[in-house]
Amino acid sequence: MFQVRALISDAGGTSANEDVAGHCGDWAWVIDGATGVSGATIGGLSDAAWFARQVDGALRRRVPDGGGLSTDTVLRQVVEDCAQGYAQATAGTPRARQERPSAAFALLRRLGDRLEMTTLGDCQIIHRGEDGQARVFGASAIPAFEERTLAAARRALDEAPELTPADLWERVVGQLRTNRRSMNVDGGYWVLSTDTDALAHVDRATIPVNGGPAALASDGFLRLIDMFGRATAADFLGLDDQAKAESALRDLRRVEAADDPHHGHLRLKRSDDASFILVRPA
């Protein structure tokens, strides 16, 4: 059983939060829905927000009965549940693979005296190694594709420095769609979607239960480390109560608001959805 010390999932803008953070028993997770590039909606939500909630709901249903099952089996059940929900929500209307909703996730599970870490996409898990050093777990090819988008944005801003955020989006959406065609194919990047193929490509490791904290974060919250340099992995493990985590979120939002997303730290979203959960093995 995990003791949850802090949990945050905060929308980066005025639209629906496309992240979810959750936990159940010996499991904890963060889900980051991939913002769609076609403008499709389901039930009044963006595809990404709908899918993140579907994955969260399926985990909450499946995890209580999953104690004797492998994590891969539980994840397969989750994806199958989401695929069924998607078919029902869209009345079976076919969409190309790259137009289907998807999400990155990080999942932590206690298995006796071990902690099992599973990630897919650019959500990550922070833990303390046996040497006492804070470590960040979770590898993904997504950053290489994001750099292609940022390169397109740089070219557009070099040509027209006063582009509005909406205009810049229109300039780079073609690159975003090209990137999305590399979703869940060899040579591309792997994320959770409505088929189970990507489950063969999760990043996984187990570590001893040492009683120390472990944290899971979406890429929006990880901006504190890898974009703005406002925190370290060790700092994240120190966010061991709700007040500390909320203070870190406020710091993130202040930095995002002050930093020009076009001419400072280049990004398409001034503020991204941000999720964080810190747990301790009970």
- The domain tally reads 1
SSE topology string: EEEEEHHEEEEHHEEHHHE
What would you give as the CATH superfamily?
A: PPM-type phosphatase domain
Kindly identify the CATH topology.
Phosphatase 2c, domain 1
- The count of helical stretches stands at 7
Strand content: 15-25%
| CATH architecture title | 4-Layer Sandwich
Gyration radius (Cα, Å) is: 18 Å
CATH class: Alpha Beta
Q: Which parts are unreliable, with pLDDT below 50 for 5 consecutive residues or more?
A: none
Distance between the termini: 6 Å
Biggest sheet strand line-up:
1-12-11-8-9
Q: What is the percent of helical residues? A: 25-40%
How many individual β-strands? 12
What's the mean pLDDT score?
95
Which class of secondary structure composition applies to the elements?
Answer: alpha+beta
Main β-sheet, in a few words?
Answer: 5 strands, antiparallel
General form: globular
